[in-house]
């Protein structure tokens, strides 16, 4: 009869210790690569949209992402074949890579709110805002978008993706230089914005906003006389909102509470597909530090994007 000893050999013990050490060291560096504050660890839920496609939608849609405190393991490098100039259209190339230098191909990206990539572009004065969705060319991490800057200065470019492997949001901050004199942002509390014959108004906004609190901002959109207008679906909803801080260190990309992801998160029920007929344009707003914030509300009317603008101060 064979006899098995319960004691491990010194070699087996050493191998086990070495294996555990490698695992813990690897986990340490992996966690170091992730954002270092809770609001950066946005989890996503899997849904099926109206076209039967799987999408990932943020379960934390109110968080402000401060890129001066957060560091994500991706990089986005911008370039253009011609000099970017004020008032002129340029074709901008975006090279997307991991922090280790590996290209990120389009098939490695999840669809979030109908797009694989959301890019927010803003000038130093926080006046000229663009929301674009670059298109991939090939599989080597090259993406392109058209950009016509209305102003001059160093534009900040926030590239937002969700890698399929992690299913977590990742942000890359880049800059795009437009020759000329730039201006500093100027703020004044404003709840109403009249753009291209469309009246945007934020309702239910307290006189004093505090940091770290969720505020439900209701967006009302009418013509100048107060009559309702027809809103078209954009990115799976009737509207979207983005907020920038005065220093341009970060942004909040907010989706309507009526969207599937937001409704489920809030425990209010909801179906299994994006409801493009939903006209409840309410947004959760929450920021970690005091100061001025500029909010842009994006809608679509007759096939054209229209952006309303508001200024809020948080104490």
How would you describe this structure to a colleague?
There is one protein chain. The protein is mostly beta strands. It has two domains: 72-178, Macroglobulin (MG2) domain (Immunoglobulin-like, Sandwich), CATH 2.60.40.1930; 192-314, Immunoglobulin-like, CATH 2.60.40. Helix content is 10%, strand content 37%. The chain has two helices and 19 strands. The chain has helices spanning 10-33, 260-265; strands spanning 44-48, 54-58, 65-66, 74-80, 90-98, 118-122, 129-132, 135-136, 142-147, 153-161, 170-178, 192-195, 198-203, 215-222, 240-245, 250-254, 282-285, 291-301, 304-314. The strands form five sheets. The protein has a five-stranded antiparallel beta sheet, with no helix packed on it. Residues 1-7, 23-43 and 260-279 have low confidence and may be disordered.
Descriptive tags:
four-stranded antiparallel beta sheet; five-stranded antiparallel beta sheet; disordered N terminus; Immunoglobulin-like; 2 domains; mainly beta; 315 residues; 2 helices; 19 strands
Q: How widely separated are the two ends?
A: 79 Å
Main structural class: mainly beta
Multimeric status of the protein: single chain
Uncertain spans: 1-7, 23-43, 260-279
Count the helices. How many?
2
| Biggest sheet architecture | 5 strands, antiparallel
Measured as a percent range, the helix fraction is under 10%
* Strand portion: 35-45%
The order of strands across the largest sheet is 3-16-15-18-19
The counted number of beta strands is 19
Please give a quick description of this structure.
This protein has two helices and 19 strands.
């Amino acid at each position: 009869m064979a006899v098995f000893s319960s004691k491990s050999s010194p070699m087996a013990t050493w191998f086990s210790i070495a294996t555990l050490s490698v695992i813990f060291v690897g986990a340490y560096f992996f966690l170091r690569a992730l954002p270092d504050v809770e609001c950066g660890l946005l989890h996503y839920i899997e849904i099926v949209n109206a076209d039967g496609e799987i999408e990932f939608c943020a379960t934390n849609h109110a968080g402000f992402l401060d890129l001066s405190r957060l560091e994500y393991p991706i990089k986005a490098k911008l370039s253009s074949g011609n000099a970017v100039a004020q008032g002129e259209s340029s074709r901008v190339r975006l090279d997307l890579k991991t922090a280790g230098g590996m290209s990120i191909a389009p098939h490695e990206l999840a669809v979030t709110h109908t797009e694989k990539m959301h890019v927010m572009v803003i000038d130093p004065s926080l006046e000229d805002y663009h929301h674009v969705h670059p298109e991939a060319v090939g599989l080597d991490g090259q993406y392109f978008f058209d950009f016509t800057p209305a102003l001059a200065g160093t534009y900040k470019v926030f590239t937002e993706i969700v890698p399929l492997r992690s299913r977590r949001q990742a942000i890359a901050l880049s800059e795009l230089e437009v020759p000329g004199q730039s201006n500093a942002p100027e703020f004044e509390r404003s709840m109403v914005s009249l753009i291209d014959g469309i009246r945007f108004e934020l309702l239910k906004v307290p006189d004093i906003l505090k940091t770290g609190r969720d505020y439900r901002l209701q967006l009302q959109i009418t013509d100048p006389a107060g009559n309702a207008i027809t809103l078209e679906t954009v990115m799976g909803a009737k509207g979207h909102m983005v907020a920038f801080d005065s220093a341009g260190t970060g942004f909040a990309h907010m989706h309507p509470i009526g969207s599937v992801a937001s409704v489920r998160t809030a425990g209010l029920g909801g179906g299994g597909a994006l409801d493009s007929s939903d006209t409840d344009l309410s947004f959760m707003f929450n920021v970690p530090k005091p100061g001025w914030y500029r909010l842009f509300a994006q809608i679509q009317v007759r096939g054209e994007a229209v952006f309303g603008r508001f200024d809020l101060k948080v104490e």
